[in-house]
Amino acid sequence: MKQDVPLPQAYRLINHGPTVLVSAAHGGRRNLMAAAWAMPLDFNPPKIAVVLDKSTYTRKLIEAAGSFALNVPCRAQVDLAYTVGTCSGEEVDKFEAFNVGSFAGHVVEAPLVAGCVAWLECRLLPQPALQSEHDLFLGEVVAAQADSRAWAGGRWQYRDGAEADPALDALRTLHHIAAGRFFTCGEQVQGHSLFNQEPGA
User: Fold this and answer.
1) Is residue 33 within 8 Å of 85, Cβ to Cβ?
2) Cα gap 55→58, rounded to integer Å
3) Taking the mean position of all CA atoms in its chain, how far away is CA 67?
4) Does the domain spanning 2-191 belong to CATH 2.30.110.10?
5) Confidence band (pLDDT; 50, 70, 90) for 162?
6) Which residues form the Flavin reductase like domain (predicted)?
């Protein structure tokens, strides 16, 4: 069900602002945390930004490893997203504690989280001032994959109304509000250019 995503399209995997699970590994240790503030920065080469608090163990692993992954969880993983975002991995392996399946990526050491709908492997672009002063981490996406049930032709395939697919609803991405409450991605609407409209229409 996993398919490679061309790197110039990787930004589309998180362009709509989903919560992500940030994974990292170094020196025989691994960790996983949730982050609500992640966004694309560039197309080619694709770059992303994510905010990681100084207190997080994942941040320490990323700084040591020089790489990380963004995993895009879905509605079926809402409890996992909430849980890994509310506890520390310093003393416990979250993958073992919460029975999180994982698999190896194409490029980076960070484990990729099974059951997600997209995965972006990233090489850290060190920016000491941004990291220290603003907790802002930049990465270049070096590999990307998506679940072919939810992603095809370079875009998400969620449908609404009469075309809605209940099986696909479980794969909708999560968007954190506060205190463990999430939206799932909702109805799509098509915009049309105003240049083509008749005056006064």
Assistant:
1) yes
2) 9
3) 15
4) yes
5) low
6) 12-158
